[in-house]
Design goal:
Layout lengths: L17 E9 L1 H10 L10 H6 L9 H16 L4 E9 L7 E15 L2 E12 L2 E12 L7
Antiparallel strand pairs: 1-3, 2-5, 3-4, 4-5
Amino acid sequence: MPVPNQTLDWSEIQVGDELPALEIAVTATVVVAGAIATRDFMPVHHDREYANSQGAPNIFMNIMTDTGYCSRFLTDWAGPEAMVKRLAIRLGVPAYAGSTLVYTGTVSVKSQVDGAGIVEVTFKATNDQGDHISGTAVLDLPMRGGQR
């Protein structure tokens, strides 16, 4: 999904609009780099032998990295001026190194609050085991065009 260089206009968004899918290859490098960047030194995120000893087949992504990818999914769609006001996620199956995550989402609510163009999105990230993340987000978008 190319990152837009223009932020979406709130007035042009409709409830039911689908966000373009985002695919993330969960490589060992992605898992380890995310853990280091978020200062999560738990061995299940960088030491395969330790992860195996805990019953996991491989190292797996941490929740802070997941949160970052959720924000990226939303802002890649909405554009650089969009503000993520609320992000709520629930973890499901793990994202092990060697898997692929596919993020999908739908606009579920559109409203105006105190003059701001608010869009709520329901989304999930899935892999070969099922739903890795399910969540909702509230974004504030500019209102340039006609209001609906």
